[in-house]
Amino acid sequence: MEQVRNIVILTGAGVSAESGIGTFRDAGGLWENHRVEDVATPEAFARDPDLVFRFYDMRREQVLEVEPNAAHHALARLQREWPARSGGAVMLVTQNVDDLHDRALGASDGAEVIHMHGEHLSAWCTACDARTRWTASLIDSPPCPSCGAPALRPDIVWFGEMPYRMDEIFAALEEADLFVSIGTSGAVYPAAGFVRTAADMGAHTLELNLQPSQGTDWFDEARHGPATQTVPAWVEEMLQG
Ligand code: APR
What we know:
Blueprint: E1 7-11, H1 14-17, E2 30-31, E3 34-35, H2 36-39, H3 42-47, H4 49-65, H5 70-86, E4 90-94, H6 100-105, E5 113-115, E6 118-125, E7 131-133, E8 152-156, H7 166-175, E9 178-182, H8 194-200, E10 204-209, E11 221-224, H9 227-240
Parallel strand pairs: 1-4, 1-9, 4-5, 9-10, 10-11
Antiparallel strand pairs: 2-3, 6-7, 6-8
Helix pairs in contact: 5-9
Bound molecules: adenosine-5-diphosphoribose (APR).
Adenosine-5-diphosphoribose (APR) is lined by residues 12-14, 17-18, 23-26, 36, 95, 117, 183-185, 187-188, 209-211, 213, 226-227.
Keywords: Cytoplasm, Metal-binding, NAD, Transferase, Zinc
Binding site for NAD(+): 12-31, 95-98, 183-185, 227
Binding site for substrate: 56, 59
């Protein structure tokens, strides 16, 4: 591997599994006998908003009960220490809608977490487009704190909707020397395609996952095991190397 400066990291549900948040595809992805895909779409929301609100209320409550694990803390350390050590940048992109990366990072100059699939602890007003930190229920359509309209929905990118901040992510993939995918099954696009974009642009690619993902053959290198072990070990290597 040539000298690494710019790193792009993509995380998925596997990074939060050991904090106690179930992954999507490992357990069959069912909720009260609904397929997750059937409650996480704009069509489901139009058909039965209360069902969708209940689903996200439960998930929001779960996020408030769990804590970041050693993998989140190690990635936050890399974000804080890598720029001064290498002169390069770390972009941390997550498909996760929990706030565990954010809590591990804390207030940090310049470093941030890109939530390409949205956030549980945020509500989006479809009337005025404002986003508000939200920890309560959305059932009964509470008014938007910005405009007063009863038009809040979970700030989640549903199936069939466009993930957030894709231009910035693709720009970083083009500049990346190293792309690392952690705890994601590689089943959902466009995130599942990042490895090929990064590789096409010359980056070394590494997978850290419990088991080989669907896209494992696209990676130059793969290390398999629980994220709380593989991620701190890899971060230590990067910061010592
Ligand atoms: N450490 C590392 N990896 C793990 C661990 C662990 N402790 N536990 C599970 N995994 C791996 C699984 O082997 C699996 O490959 O994490 C991956 C989780 O895959 P998914 O459940 O498919 O989750 P993810 O890839 O994040 O899903 C992508 O799909 O449902 C949508 O929008 C949702 O963001 C989500 C997207």
